[in-house]
Amino acid sequence: MKVVRCKYCPQLLLTPESRARGYGLVCGRKRGLIPPPTPRHTRLATPVTAVTTPDLHPDQLAIPLEPEMRNPEPDKARALPQINVECPTCSAAPGDLCTSHGGTRPRRHDVHQARTAAWNRHTTKEN
Ligand SMILES: [Zn+2]
Ligand SMILES: [Zn+2]
């Protein structure tokens, strides 16, 4: 293949289009010889403002979002009633998540069985 260089820079021209033109795409664009690429989506003539939910009236309550929607990975264990007692296994304080692996990893989805058992004893005692 015959070596063809861009007439504006030392760039080798490899594509048949560039070789036929005699200059590269970059130089052609830089010099306005090649039109810039057409955007895939033509820009709108008027800017569009995003529609947002209007503010609530002060006396109206917002509809609460599902916890899953706000937090994709909620600490399910916090919703368990047995979270309110101390865990006999890992000695997590009431309201705290159980921990595994020597206290390095919180158990977000459940608690130790002994804690559930402790809670059951606790509720039976109260009733
Ligand atoms: Zn060039
Ligand atoms: Zn525990």
From TrEMBL:
Family annotation (InterPro entries): Phage_Znf_bind_put
Domain (DNA-binding phage zinc finger): residue spans on this chain: 77-122
Pfam families listed in its UniProt record: Phage_zn_bind_8 (PF24623)
Stated name of the protein: DNA-binding phage zinc finger domain-containing protein
